[in-house]
Amino acid sequence: MKVSVTTISISELDVDLLLIPMMEEQADGTLADLADSFGGSFRRAAPDFSGDAGTSVLLYPERGSARRVALLGLGSAEKLSGEALRMAAAEGARLAGVAKVETVGVALAAQETLEVEYVAQSVVEGFLLGAYRFDQYRTESEAPAPVARLVLQTSENDKAVRRGAERGRVISEAVATARDLVNTSPNDKTPTLLAKAMEKSAKKYNYLASVWNKELIEEEQMGGLLAVNLGSQEPPTFTVLEWMPDNRRNERPVVLVGKGVVFDTGGLSLKPTKDSMDAMKSDMAGAAAVIGAVEAVARLELPLYVIGLIPATDNRPGENAYVPGDVIKMHSGKTVEVLNTDAEGRMILADALSYAKTYNPEVCIDLATLTGAAVIALGHHAAAVMTSEGPDADELLAPLKAAGERSGERVHQLPMFEEYGEQIKSTVADIKNVGGRAAGSITAGKFLEHFVSYPWIHIDIAGPSFLKEAKPYKPVGGTGFGVRLLVEYLRDYADRKRG
Q1: Same domain for 189 and 103
Q2: Residues 145 and 291 in one domain
Q3: How far is CA 267 from CA 54, 232, 270, 339, 348, in A?
């Protein structure tokens, strides 16, 4: 979709659909003003439109160049946020689909709370993400033709609006990359095919992707990744993504690690099908988020040294599958007693986190659909975030929490007290791979903690990464959760490194 910016008046904007977001406090006065430009229908619409968040009214103006005008409610001025703008823009995308239009204009809401650049970015994100469709496997698409052009109308700093709009477009397309990867059928998403998708992205967007085959993984002694792969007929891969611009502000990288279990049956600890295994093509959503984030970082040319690590395999109950009771020697040299083969994500992440030490990272962030316990705790509205307890924990997590609020991809901190580590002590190995029913997300985090020796953040995205009911700009299926969170965090990180 082409995204552009104009400063011409909204009455002269020649589009199939003009979207006008407005706050509750603006509704009456703005509608009266609009009636002067577009006709009396706007004055007559006043009883039907209050400006409440989530509301909309579609009108057919008597005057002006736009064929249709939709009023979009933003809610109260005191609660105006990027998320409110995304929600309103997503409603606009829905109306554009219903009306089957080709060109859409958006009049940026007049307000004094948010930076206009952020407003433009949020509006573009909301519209593009709301317009997303995954039709790869449909022989006849049920969706209308996509909008060809989105035009942002502004009377303010058009250069700032252009920057925000372009950033919103790039980030939204990176989210679409992540969504597409999650939604892809498992038979089209083997570890090898996922690695090829990363190589294709790297070539297109000018970053590096190095793919390790099984032999190289064996040489590196990644015992966790190899163990999980034992039941599969498809070999594992380990892919290193690298963005290292000349103007980087960090000599040591920020490392992103994404869980890449392309399909999870649970192994010999077999999952039930309904509401469990039937959604397990999504078990590589962490990998998809890292791929999308690195793609966006490269396209935005962020002045940061960033590494992405993607361990990839499926988890199947083949004849050589690892079994409960096995003791696995990991990349770090630690030994793990396997008590549940469905706790496989932490096994492959542990090897990647151990390997990350070779980069001596300034900070490492892993993303994984790791535990159902995270869904029980937080539902689908936020991801669980954890880090080692200590005096620097709050300082480490604060920028990520702030990035979550600005991006709309919120995270909520869970404790990592030393006592939780008692649950994963093994009688025959260094640790075991499950800690029981209680505090399942936290004990998974405590497991990963054994394999890090640098500033580290763990994000369990099991809840918000895959939906069975659509939300305003989040479709059924893969949501791409994590891409916008990471990009916002990394943009802020680069600003802070500038000093």
Answers
A1: no
A2: no
A3: 43, 9, 5, 12, 14
What's the rounded Cα separation, in Å, for the pair 302 and 170? 13
Strand ranges (E), 233-387:
237-243, 254-258, 260-264, 306-315, 327-329, 335-337, 363-368, 383-386
- Name the CA dihedral angle for 345, 366, 410, 461, rounded to a multiple of 10 degrees: -10
Please indicate whether residue 271 is annotated as part of the active site. yes
Q: Which residues pair with 211 in a beta bridge?
A: 239
Known active-site residue 346: yes
Nearest to 189 by CA among 234, 252, 238: 234
221 and 290 Cβ atoms separated by less than 8 Å: no
Residue range(s) defining the domain that contains residue 346: 176-498
Taking a C-beta distance cutoff of 8 angstroms, is the pair 298, 206 a contact?
Answer: yes
Q: Which residues pair with 17 in a beta bridge?
A: 104
Q: Of the candidates 74, 38, 68, which has an alpha carbon nearest to the alpha carbon of residue 147?
A: 68
Say if residue 67 is exposed, middle or buried (CB neighbours under 10 Å; 0-12, 13-18, 19+).
Answer: middle
Residue 274 exposed, middle or buried by CB count within 10 Å (0-12, 13-18, 19+): exposed
Q: How far is CA 117 from the centre of its chain?
A: 21
Name the 3-class secondary structure at 182. Answer: helix
In this predicted structure, what is the pLDDT of residue 157? 75
Q: Are residues 211 and 135 in the same domain?
A: no
Q: What is the pLDDT of residues 184-210, one digit of tens each?
A: 999 999 999 999 999 999 999 999 999
Contact 472, 87 (CB under 8 A): yes
Q: What is the full DSSP assignment across 386-405?
A: E---STTHHHHHHHHHHHHH
Catalytic residue among 94, 271, 471, 497: 271
Residues 128 and 180 in one domain: no
What's the whole-number mean pLDDT along residues 321-331?
Answer: 98
Return d(Cα 192, Cα 188) in angstroms, integer.
10
383-386 and 456-460 beta bridge pairing: antiparallel
Tens of pLDDT along 121-131? 999 999 999 99
Q: Dihedrals φ, ψ of 15, to 5°? A: -140, 160
pLDDT tens-digit readout, 273-311: 998 999 999 999 999 999 999 999 999 999 999 999 999
Catalytic residue, candidates 167, 259, 316, 346: 346
Name residue 471's beta-bridge partners: 474
Q: What is the CA radius of gyration of the chain?
A: 24
In a domain, 170, yes or no: no
Domain contains 164: no
Give me the number of domains the chain comprises: 2
Q: CA 374 to CA 380: how far, in whole Å?
A: 9
- Kindly report whether the global pTM for this prediction surpasses the value 0.70: yes
Q: Which two tokens stand for residue 202?
A: 């790297």
Regarding whether 407 and 458 lie in a shared domain, the answer is yes
